[in-house]
Specification:
The complex is a heterodimer.
Chain A (H helix, E strand, L loop, with lengths): L12 E8 L5 E2 L5 E2 L2 E8 L9 E5 L37 E5 L14 E2 L4 E2 L9 H14 L5 E7 L1 H12 L4 E7 L7 H16 L16 H15 L2 H7 L18 H14 L4 H13 L21 E7 L7 H13 L4 E6 L13 H17 L4
Parallel strand pairs in A: 5-6, 5-9, 9-10, 10-11, 11-12
Antiparallel strand pairs in A: 1-4, 2-3, 4-6, 7-8
Helix pairs in contact in A: 1-2, 3-4, 3-7, 4-6
Chain B lengths: L1 H13 L5 E5 L5 H10 L2 E6 L2 H9 L4 E3 L2 H4 L8 E7 L8 H11 E9 L4 H10 L23 H10 L2 E10 L2 E5 L7 H4 L2 E8 L25 E2 L5 E2 L3
Parallel strand pairs in B: 1-2, 1-4, 2-3, 4-5
Antiparallel strand pairs in B: 5-8, 6-7, 6-8, 9-10
Classes of the chains: A alpha/beta, B alpha/beta.
């Protein structure tokens, strides 16, 4: 990424932490509740007088609300800043763009690192298990608190896309259009397997201390870094890894030991160590669990189309990447078939790219073109053009 | 490209306002956009090429990247009022299956096919002994996407086999207005370069839903219909 002026310079931004009083708990799918609930969020642009221009962007597993502004911990540009800004896909001069940190996260929303009011100590593993449905319910609470009745669009990639699907199922009346990128309607056995490797790596770190590491003033950094390294491989395609690194070495010749001889090793180690600076290990456990529990069809008697029957007025755009093996194209096709089966109008395209799952963060002209076409048409239909 | 516009103009006449329309092989979405604008249809496209899909999205149309040969099975029964398949049936792997799928998904199908019985085609074969290259079939044999060409008689025979009713038919030729025809007249199997059909199911499994009144949509031509006599036995005219 190139150094640049934050594109949000000169744009009205807002957000912070929304505190819901204990009288407004977040009721969870597990039957438990979170109270008081805090939601970390960020906004770009201004809500119009008709309140018709709100766009909710849902972040992925390790993302956060810092969509298009400098990250307060890493100092890096926002994770989707190439899509948010004047003249860009999500133009703050036209839309009121909202991004919330998911419940269970570690960037301002209530999660396992938050203080449990009952004990005055960090929740740790006493934090209740959350689901994608819980994340969406928390977002809906914030949207309502902001005085927004209907979202012009809910947009998300990966876990963000799953939240958008859940929005369509749970709050269709609050949705005008929906964009689901590189997602799936359920976690596959392979998805769960990779997450289990990550969780076991965290829990095997002696510093994890059954999740009570914060009280002890330590953090399971090694375990979390390994979890990130394993997961990061699933975000890239074999071809992209080969193209980027091949068998290139770090130095001349082999070390005949276990240092990072290969560039790909060094790259992954860097991914791991830089991740632990900005992410809480318990949050990683909880959010991966929420993903593993995600099975939208199961919430509707095993028939995915049933999830969407009340969303016939919502215009959907579903996109996949040809080289994504984490949530491969057939998963998106299943979503589209269910949408068609429910009588929803859906658009679907498979973007040809060798960049794998992470392509939705990257420069992919066809992705831009497709999203632009879809959103422009929806904006016209909504009277926002 | 005036032949295509004629094609579209005829389809525009056939489709009821505010109908639900599935356009299979919708390319850049020109027809769907026309139908949306002129008839207020609720349209859904199916298109195989990424460029076509991108163009449709830019027009604000709902389009699914997919393959008519494989993806029709996933649409629910009677989800649409019309399924449109413009000049691509002959490119399908299984035209028979596709045709019956069209009339499962939709109450009526609008299908156009180039007529391999056209006199130019027959003449090219007879005189030169080579695969014909005509206005409706411009590609040489080694690059044509057309793998299942048929004549008008072949097509009407298939409709009979599938127990489909031909509600209307018109002959299309490049640069000329559409001409309503009776596709079972032998002369039309020589004259029609491309034929556009409006088809519906003859046998309704359930109580018949209100559909188009059985009038001649193209005007004055009286269509020959097949009579059903006995169980599945049909007598054909023409």
């Amino acid at each position: 990424m190139t150094a640049q002026t934050p594109i949000t310079a000169g744009i009205e931004t807002g957000g912070g932490t929304w505190r819901f009083p204990a009288s407004q708990p977040l009721r969870l799918d597990s039957g438990a509740a979170v109270a008081p609930l805090e939601i970390g969020y960020k906004t770009y642009g201004r809500l119009n007088a008709d309140k018709t221009n709100a766009v909710l962007v849902c972040h992925a597993l390790t993302g956060d609300q810092h969509l298009a502004s400098t990250h307060p911990v890493t100092g890096k540009p926002g994770w989707w800043d190439r899509f948010v800004g004047p003249g860009l896909l999500l133009d703050p001069e036209r839309y009121f763009i909202i991004c919330t940190n998911v419940v269970g996260g570690c960037m301002g929303s209530t999660g396992p690192a938050s203080t449990d009011p009952a004990t005055n100590a960090p929740y740790g593993l006493t934090f209740p298990v959350i689901t994608i449905g819980d994340m969406v319910r928390a977002q809906a609470m914030l949207i309502e608190a902001l005085g927004i009745e209907t979202l012009f669009a809910a947009v998300g990639g990966s876990m963000g896309g799953m939240q958008v699907l859940q929005w369509a199922a749970d709050y269709p009346e609050k949705l005008f259009s929906a964009v689901v990128i590189a997602a799936a309607a359920r976690h596959s056995a392979q998805n769960i397997a990779f997450h289990e490797v990550g969780r076991q790596a965290i829990m095997a770190d002696p510093n994890w201390r059954q999740g009570a590491y914060l009280a002890a003033g330590v953090r399971p950094e090694k375990g979390l870094a390994v979890a990130r390294m394993a997961a990061h491989i699933t975000y890239l395609s074999e071809a992209a890894l080969q193209r980027k690194f091949g068998r290139e070495l770090q130095r001349d010749g082999l070390s005949w030991g276990f240092d990072a001889d290969f560039q790909v090793e060094s790259y992954l180690r860097h991914q791991g160590t830089s991740f632990v600076d900005r992410f809480d290990a318990n949050s990683y456990l909880y959010i991966t669990r929420a993903l593993d529990y995600f099975d939208l069809a199961a919430q509707y008697g095993g028939v995915l189309a049933e999830a969407f029957v009340k969303a016939r007025h919502v215009k959907f755009c579903v996109l996949s990447f040809s080289s994504d093996w984490l949530y491969p194209t057939p998963e998106s096709r299943d979503i589209v078939r269910a949408l068609n089966g429910a009588g929803c109008r859906a658009s679907f395209a498979e973007i040809q790219t060798d960049k794998g799952h992470d392509a939705f963060f990257l420069d992919e002209p066809l992705l831009d073109q497709t999203l632009r076409g879809f959103l422009a048409a929806q904006a016209t239909a909504r009277g926002l053009a | 490209m005036s032949a295509i516009r004629e094609d579209f103009a005829e389809i525009l006449k056939l489709v009821r306002p505010n109908a639900r329309v599935l356009d299979i092989g919708c390319e850049d979405g020109e027809l769907l956009e026309l139908l949306t604008r002129e008839k207020g249809v609720d349209g859904q496209g199916l298109e195989i090429s990424p460029q076509g899909v991108a163009a449709c999205l830019a027009r604000g149309l709902a389009v699914v990247q997919g393959d008519g040969d494989r993806d029709l099975d996933h649409f629910p029964t009677r989800a649409f009022d019309y399924a449109i398949l413009s000049k691509t049936l002959q490119q399908m792997r299984e035209p028979r299956h596709v045709l019956s799928e069209l009339l499962r998904i939709a109450d009526q199908a609008v299908v156009s096919v180039p007529n391999f019985g056209h006199w130019k085609v027959r003449w090219a074969l007879l005189s030169r002994g080579r695969m014909p290259e005509t206005g409706a079939l411009p590609e040489p044999w080694w690059s044509t996407p057309n793998i299942h060409l048929c004549t008008l008689r072949d097509f009407t025979a298939l409709c009979d086999d599938l127990d489909l009713r031909i509600d209307a038919c018109a002959s299309l030729a490049e640069g000329r207005p559409a001409r309503p025809i009776d596709p079972r007249q032998p002369i039309e199997n020589w004259r029609a370069e491309t034929a556009l059909f409006l088809l519906s199911r003859r046998a309704e499994p359930q109580v018949a839903a209100p559909s188009l009144p059985q009038q001649n949509l193209f005007g004055e031509v009286e269509l020959a219909t097949t009579e059903t006599s006995g169980k599945g036995k049909r007598a054909r005219r023409a």
